[in-house]
């Protein structure tokens, strides 16, 4: 009887060990792996600035000409571009070369674009300084446009301070904004794309990066600060 009892105990022990091992194998990985303080403290060396700091850097300077890109810089215009792609070239970028899309985009679809808060702050600051404001976009030019009117309304620009939007267009292998920045003698140019920053830097202007919203239809997202430029904090919206 003692032998039988010992055998049963051994069998139960082995069964328990087997069950424990199986249970351990079936336990899923933690849903939240956690993070170390070193990971939290890690930062990319970017030259961050605020609107207030930009304003402070201009104290004592006479009025200047400043420029703004439009899409993803002053307007979150992805709704119009999203609709254009669905209507003219689903899943492809061909719609960006379709004149019909640009006619729609430049003549009404910006009513669905949201003005960015950072742009409101910047434009208000520059208007207060008496600076001349120019909007220089890579959009294709169309016979008519309501973008200028939309921007004037969105950013409360007085009639005597409004300059018509400059449609620089898009040409492969060429940064079409450079010549316009030179022609208007722009000293500061705000933009979300690499081309905006390099256009400013190539002609000796101060290029300042505005963050592109992560849900923008314009992907992939650029690497802000890649050219050593100033990057505005909290400027994605």
Task: Describe what this molecule looks like in 3D.
The protein has 237 residues and is α/β, with parallel strands linked by helices. 39% of the residues lie in helices and 14% in strands. The protein has 9 helices and 9 strands. It has helices at residues 2-26, 37-41, 51-57, 78-88, 99-106, 117-129, 147-154, 177-183, 194-202; strands at residues 47-49, 65-68, 75-76, 114-115, 132-137, 166-167, 186-191, 206-209, 230-232. It starts with a helix and ends in a 5-residue tail after the last strand. The model is unreliable at 1-23 (pLDDT under 50).
Question: What is the structure about, briefly put?
Answer:
The chain is an alpha/beta fold.
Our measurement of the CA-to-CA distance between the termini, rounded to an integer number of angstroms, reads 80 Å
Q: Looking across the biggest beta sheet, what order are the strands in?
A: 1-9-8-7-2-5-6
Mean pLDDT: 91
How much helical structure, as a percent, in the residues?
A: 25-40%
Unreliable runs: 1-23
Q: Number of helix segments?
A: 9
Shape designation: globular
How is the biggest beta sheet arranged?
Answer: 7 strands, parallel
Query: What is the tally of beta strands?
Result: 9
Structural Rg = 28 Å
The percentage of residues in β strands lies in 5-15%
Q: Give me the secondary-structure category.
A: alpha/beta
Order of helices and strands: HHEHEEHHEHEHEHEHEE
């Amino acid at each position: 009887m003692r032998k039988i009892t010992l055998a049963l105990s051994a069998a139960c022990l082995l069964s328990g060990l087997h069950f424990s091992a199986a249970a351990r194998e079936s336990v899923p990985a933690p849903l939240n792996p956690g993070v170390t303080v070193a990971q939290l403290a890690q930062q990319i060396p970017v030259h961050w600035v605020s609107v207030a700091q930009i304003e402070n850097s201009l104290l004592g300077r006479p009025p200047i000409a400043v420029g703004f890109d439009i899409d993803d810089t002053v307007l979150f215009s992805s709704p119009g571009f999203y609709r254009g792609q669905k209507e003219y070239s689903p899943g492809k970028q061909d719609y960006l070369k379709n004149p019909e899309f640009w006619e729609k985009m430049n003549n009404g679809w910006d009513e669905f674009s949201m003005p960015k808060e950072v742009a409101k702050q910047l434009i208000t600051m520059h208007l207060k300084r008496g600076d001349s404001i120019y909007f220089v976009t890579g959009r294709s030019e169309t016979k008519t446009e309501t973008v200028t009117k939309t921007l004037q309304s969105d950013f409360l620009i007085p009639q005597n301070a409004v300059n018509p939007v400059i449609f620089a267009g898009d040409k492969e292998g060429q940064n079409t904004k450079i010549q316009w920045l030179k022609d208007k003698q722009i000293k500061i140019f705000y933009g979300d794309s690499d081309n905006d920053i390099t256009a400013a830097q190539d002609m000796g202007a101060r290029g300042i990066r505005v963050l592109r919203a992560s849900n923008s239809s314009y992907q992939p997202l650029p690497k802000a600060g890649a050219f050593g430029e100033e990057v505005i904090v909290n400027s994605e919206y």
